[in-house]
Each structure stands twice: as C-alpha cells, then as structure tokens.
C-alpha cells in the first residue's frame, strides 16, 4: 500500500532515515510489565519530493500517546525551559502590548508552565491540552484548561464560547500533529482578525546539521523546515511575517503568523534571510535529504565503540534523564542494561519505572552520588549545561559526562569552564 504525504497527499517514495523498530518513546514500563510483550513499530522517516515535508507514518493514535491520562512529560521540571517561557511572555507583552483585555490561548499547554506567567500579569489565558494528568496540574495553578485535542472542531467550540485568541501559541506541538491540515485550519478559525500566532518547533536544518536523529520518535509525526512550514500556513490563509532561530531543543524556530488579509505586522527581513539560508543548505533539493541516513549509522557505530571500550575497562556507566529522544537513541543503537546500569530523572512521575525496549530502571538523581559511576551519559543533551551544573559534584570521584549528540564527547566534571564553552 502506498504512503501519502500528510500535507499535500503526494506519494512518499524517498527515505530520510530508517531507525529500525522501536517502542513508543514515552511508554515507560512498570515492573509488572517487564515480562510482557512490548509493541515495536517502524521508526522510518520519509521525505515528500513535492512539499519536502519529512514525516513518519502514524502507527499509534494521538489518543494513545497523549490522551490516556498518563502522559509522562511535565514541562515544569526543566528550570531552563521555565526561564524560556517567562522570557517569551515578557517579549510578547512588550512587542504586541497584550493586556487584561487580551485573550491568550496555548495549544498543548501541558502543566501550565508558560500560561502561568501571562496569568500573573492579569492577562486572561486558556490552555488546550489532551493529557488529563498534565491539564490537572495546570488547573491546580489556576490555569483554565480544556482537556481536548485541537483542530477545526475544537476551534469552532472555542469561538462559540467567546475564546477567540489575540495571541495563539504552541510550543513543540506542531511536530506532534498527524492531521496538520486540520490543526492549521483550526488555528485559522480561532485567531482573531488582527491576532498573532506563534509556534515553536525543532528546526529540521539543525536536526540534519547537528545529527539530532534521536529527536525522531513516534510522537513526532513531522519535521519542519521554514520553507515547508511557510507553504503549509499559506495554504490555510495564514502568512508568516517573522521568524526567530532559537537555541532550545538543539535548535528551534519560532514562527510568527497572522491572517493573510491583515495589513500589520509587515513581513520581516528575517523571513527572507532564513529562506535563503535553508536554500543555501540544500533544503530545496531532495538529494540533500537522502544523505542523512549514512550520517546516522556512523554515529551509532561511534557510540557503541565508546561504550564497549569503557565497559571492557571495567567502567561503570549511568545515564541522566528519561526523555523520548533518549529512548530512540538507546533502542536504535541497541544499548541496554549491559551498558547502562540505570538512569535518573527529576520527575517523580518517571521514577520507579523502566525505559521501554531497554528496560533500564529510572531512579532518583540521588542514586548517582550513592553509586559514583565513572560516566554519566546525558540523554536530554539539549539540557546538558543545566544538567552538568546540577551534577557537578561527580567531580568528587573523578566522574565524567558523556554527550552522545552530535557525536560522542566526554567532559570532565572538574572543568567547569567547559559549561560556558558548551553554552556558546
């Protein structure tokens, strides 16, 4: 059966990267499930030769991944992400003058990590969040939240309830949407005539240039360049008038949109500049996308070589974090408990569980000090500076950090100046 592009309907014939078979990345296991069969699905990305959208097939529904009431990711457990959210709030209020008469709507609002800052300023907010457990955490912060998936139908309900948006935002949600036309169509409906929308998502250019193949997992249905995403929004009567390149998640874009018939704001020069940058990198040429797979295989070999040599020398290795990207990395590379003793995570919602596929136990961060491993493999490498600061005490026993992406790098914890180098 032929596969069709989820945006333009074109037949998908070209492979971007084939990462083999993998479980759903955030389906952490309880001890009772360790001896039961797990579902593995193809983690095979394609690129459309018409619109150049990089995409996965849909094997598990969004309802299973996000809407079963037990979603594992809570945004508020990352201090750097909270700082990012607060800075975004200040920027939006300063640039667009949102106030107590405005309505801010966030799609995929998680645990209220961002809307809380608008709420503190007395600006009306509404979250739309499919995961009941994270929505409950938001409600406990005083953030009104609809427990729904967003699309055309939800947008119509919001308009009927008087919840049209002056500012409509979504951070790291666009990649999670299988029906992108329904999603963007809903944004068109709920955005006020002179409203502003912003979306943040990992930048495909950075994924390719920085070898971030572990950000490919079943929650992420699509991977976006600016060239492609501009076409998608334009097809629904929305114009992208500005764009920022961000450092978050290994390199992200923040796009700014408006209704195409709105006079203001005018289109920024940054739009033209980024399109030129992507074109120079070959993102308008299908051949560019077809070389990524070999790059991924080389990284797998380098990581395995490092781990094999470390274990042959009797070194003890623990990991930090239980992110979805870490599960892609471990399952694709075949790294299990024979290499990694355990991982740790600050989120109590993950502690006591086991990583899918590899069955590596997730423990409290205190376990690091207790067992004093020689190496700590940082799985959420996008937070490496924050984690190295938190875990600097591993220098007491000569412990070192290992960062696997873009390729294996070892950082002695005693060299604190490394942190500023990494940050830059």
From TrEMBL:
Record-annotated Methyltransferase putative zinc binding domain positions: 5-66
Listed SUPFAM superfamilies: S-adenosyl-L-methionine-dependent methyltransferases
GO molecular function annotation: methyltransferase activity
Listed transmembrane segments: none
InterPro entries with a match to the protein in the record: Methyltransf_Zn-bd_dom_put, Methyltransf_Zn-bd_dom_put_sf, MeTrfase_14, SAM-dependent_MTases_sf
PANTHER family: BLL5978 PROTEIN (PTHR43861:SF5), TRANS-ACONITATE 2-METHYLTRANSFERASE-RELATED (PTHR43861)
Descriptive protein name: C-methyltransferase
